[in-house]
Design a protein that fits this description.
- The protein is mainly alpha-helical.
- It contains two helices and two strands.
- It has helices spanning 21-30, 35-43; strands spanning 2-3, 11-12.
- The chain has a two-stranded antiparallel ribbon.
- The longest helix is centred in the middle third of the chain and has 10 residues, at 21-30.
Length: 44
């Protein structure tokens, strides 16, 4: 699945329950985040 919002980056969202580490890092990078920023957002 690819999430697209006008004026923002497109991000692919895997449908699998488990995502390989490299794939997740790539998605985080494509979203314009660092791993630390992603973790902070994920934890809320």
């Amino acid at each position: 699945m690819i999430m697209v919002r006008p004026g923002r980056r497109s991000v692919s969202i895997p449908r699998d329950r488990e995502v390989p580490r490299g794939t997740l890092r790539g998605i985080i990078h494509d979203a314009g985040l660092t791993v630390d920023e992603f973790i902070a957002l994920f934890k809320g």
